[in-house]
Amino acid sequence: MFNLNFTICLKESNKNNLFQANEVGLRLSQADIFSTQLIIDGNGSTFPITETDNPSGPLWQIKKLWKDPMTDPFNASSVQIELNRKHKNYNMLEKNALSKDGVYALLMTQIVAQSIAMIVVEARRDVEDENEYFEIEDASDGSIMKVVDYWADIYGIDIRNDNIMEVFNKVFEGMKEQYNEN
Q1: How far apart are CA 168 and CA 13, in angstroms?
Q2: Chain segment 36-62, per-residue pLDDT in tens
């Protein structure tokens, strides 16, 4: 787990006035401007999982931040699962509170499977909007579409399938099989 906190600090001081910060490195913001947690789940997370504090928000959400799935890298700058620490059921997502075979494992498997299904369908739609006859082989290495192609291979997904429920069912069944093998 990584905590990322962003603040404003003084880079250099050119003029000294009364009540003006004059020490290089001095923190200028009272609170963090932005704060998040990056969680690396298990032996290499399926994709970036971040956390937020939003008392009125959902337990989790997927953030689609990409512009072009054929070239944009598959990392936190393009797509994320965001878990809400302030949600009343967040404690169900804490590994230490639950056994490996309990609610945590089932809930996280559901969240990841739903997220994969959404990414597969949305990324394909976005690419088809630009080029109806795209070839997945043309996707850049490390791109979102290369990851979609990998998922299609390991879960037996037809990426041209527009039915998110069918895609989810394939992914979820594949994940359950993988989980039971480990």
Answers
A1: 56
A2: 655 544 444 456 788 899 999 999 999
Q: Give me the amino acid identity at 46.
A: T
Instruction: Give CA–CA dist 111/60, Å, rounded.
Output: 8
Question: d(Cα 5, Cα 3) in Å, to the nearest integer?
Answer: 6
pLDDT digits (tens, 9 = 90+) for 138-163: 889 989 999 999 999 999 998 888 89
Cα gap 9→22, rounded to integer Å = 11
Alpha helices in 16-137 (DSSP H): 103-130
Angstrom distance (rounded) from CA 143 to CA 165: 24
Element holding 149 (H helix, E strand): helix 144-155
